[in-house]
Amino acid sequence: MSDEILKLILAELKSLKKGQEDLKKGQEELQEVVSAIRASQETMSAEMEGMRKEMQQNFAQVSRHMRMLESDLDLIGKRQFENEIQINRLKGLHEQ
Description:
The structure is a single chain. This protein is mostly helical and about 100 residues long. It is about 95% helix and about 0% strand. The protein has one helix at about 5-95.
């Protein structure tokens, strides 16, 4: 083989090696990006889980308060009814 062909082959091999090194470097950078994205995703998932638990607790508290308010309103309604009965009885006694 002639020296020119060998030089061309050597130049092509160097070019291929350079391309391979660039690809490897790009792959490493992509792996770093993927790792950062995964870490961020894990952080967000943990934060979302915390928010979910907090919302469940808040909802349970609101539900409990609503039941208490409903019970209070029922009691107020019963007392109002009893008071109206007594008022009507007193009016009836007064009118006699």
